[in-house]
Amino acid sequence: MRALPAILAGPALFFTGISPYSILETLGARLMRPDNRPADALRRVSFEMGAAPYAEGSCLAVFGHTRVLCSATVEDSTPPWLRGRGQGWVTAEYAMLPRATHQRTRREVTSGKPSGRTQEIQRLIGRSLRAVTDLKALGERQVILDCDVLQADGGTRTAAITGAWIALYAACQYLGQEGGLAANPVTGQVAAVSSGLVKGEARLDLEYEEDSAADADANFVLTASGGVVEVQATAETDPMKPEEFDALFALARKGIGELAALQREALGLKD
């Protein structure tokens, strides 16, 4: 017979009529992730370059069952409020296809304006990319990142930011090859990942089933060098303890390091 942990080996448990092995199995099920990942593991992540071949830069970002098409469009003009200032602009638009989710979502164009959630996410993507872009070096041109969610299973905004950075870098590489830029204006790497407290356990890169049941969750936008661009954190039940937030942050730093390496690999950049 296999040995029991000391906490389950006491005779009191046997008087309850419950097998200690069933308790072990219950505990294991409670902590098991939907896809059997370890708590500190990312979902399976991939970046398919050139997924939108007519765009100056593009990639399909896949995080488990979440799939986001990220396309960069370069325009030789800036928004009116930036004209004549000798600098460019990087912005983003985000959208979810109607059947990206289990039930059809109505196209926002039919309501005449994007939802508050959509506006918040596309502003987040734009801020994240501008944080690592030299807008003066970009010149008087605008790069628009379109992030279209083809399939959603949690983490669409983090996948969009991570994939959009690849599309932006590729677009600027293209401009350089065409003679439009002396140097790539993207000055650093940025990526994003979620982490959360689920059933008392800190977990990295939540899929929808975990995110919807989390006691607390956070989205971290970090640079490859460790800089913090933005943190969005929410406690759904009780306020987070400082040590719990620290655990989520530590997981995010680990995840961002792995995502940054995958970004460089997709672009063929040397470490």
What does the model show?
The strands form two sheets. The protein has a five-stranded mixed sheet. A four-stranded antiparallel sheet has the order 7-6-8-9, with helices on both faces. The termini are far apart. The protein has one domain: Ribosomal Protein S5, domain 2 (2-Layer Sandwich), CATH 3.30.230. The protein contains six helices and nine strands, in the order H-E-E-E-E-H-H-E-H-E-E-H-E-E-H. Mean pLDDT is 89; it is low at 1-16 and 18-30. The relative contact order is 0.15. The protein is 31% helix and 25% strand. It is globular and about 55 Å long. The protein is of the alpha+beta class and 271 residues long.
Set out the fold topology.
Layout: H1 20-31, E1 45-49, E2 57-63, E3 66-75, E4 89-96, H2 116-130, H3 135-138, E5 142-151, H4 156-177, E6 190-198, E7 201-204, H5 208-211, E8 216-223, E9 228-235, H6 242-267
Helix pairs in contact: 2-4, 4-6
Shape: globular
Strand order of the largest sheet: 1-2-3-5-4
CATH topology: Ribosomal Protein S5, domain 2
Largest sheet: 5 strands, mixed
Q: Assign the CATH superfamily.
A: GHMP Kinase, N-terminal domain
The average pLDDT score comes to: 89
Write down the secondary-structure element order: HEEEEHHEHEEHEEH
First-to-last CA distance: 50 Å
Number of distinct beta strands:
9
Radius of gyration: 22 Å
